[in-house]
Amino acid sequence: MASKPGAKPSSANKTTTTAKPVAAKPAAQKTAAAKPAATKPPVAKIAPKTPVVAKKVSTAPAIKVVNKSAAVTEKDKAKTSKVKMERDSFTMPKEEYAQIATLKKRLEGLGKPVKKSELLRAGLKLLSAMDDASLKTTMATVPTIKTGRPKK
Question: Do 104 and 116 touch, CB atoms closer than 8 A?
Answer without folding.
Answer: yes
